């Protein structure tokens, strides 16, 4: 591992056009997909994560594209992408290292305002120019003019099929989903396709070096903005000030909180396919009403 990270540091030095003298490397986790390290050098610190380029082809390229797309909105702080590459079938991504500090008193209010600003960046269609990943699973972003068509065809159906094929969900649950699909046109208010983080749970934001919000690990696409807001409620960890500030800047249509469970069917199906367990019952509980 030490040799791999030294090889990465050499490529990074070329990319930055300056020598890098490595002092140490420190494991910082990385979750179930990646290994991650802090690369300390005389010239500064860097965040490096890597995984199998064979198992997850193009994952870091897509992540880098997503980070840059978010960063170019100038709405919320995003880690700088410094280098994407591959060495001996191991893919790696190098980002700026951000030292987290205590949040500023207005952290959550600013977070809400900045998320609202991000969502004001829109496109003509729902989807994205390229497919990417949600966790370790492929995420299809084929474009649609209709949010409901996109939600069914590119989000719910692929995950539902996988869950049925692996035996996590049964035919009765599929019938409930079919009932939901018929009602979706009447559930969601019309919204333009908004640029979304796409995987906005509490593990994918941090407090930056100035006490500001920083978001990372996106699964970006242009979608219905309530999807990001709903995801923040799935596992908790977000303060009510965020929603207050968001609503002041970019008001949501009436009843959005009642639509949260339907929005969260997508990430819940992803979790069914990754982990099974109690997520199966959560999905069944939501769709049983349809």
Describe this structure in words.
With 290 residues, the protein is α+β, with helices and mostly antiparallel strands. The chain has 2 domains: 95 residues, Phosphorylase Kinase, domain 1 (2-Layer Sandwich); 181 residues, Aminoglycoside phosphotransferase (APH), C-terminal lobe (Aminoglycoside 3'-phosphotransferase, Chain: A, domain 2, Alpha-Beta Complex). The chain contains 10 helices and 11 strands. The chain has a 5-stranded antiparallel sheet, with helices on both faces. Strands 6-7 form a two-stranded antiparallel sheet. It has a two-stranded antiparallel sheet with strand order 8-11. The relative contact order is 0.14. The model has no long low-confidence stretch (mean pLDDT 96).
Give a short summary of the structure:
The protein is α+β, with helices and mostly antiparallel strands and 290 residues long.
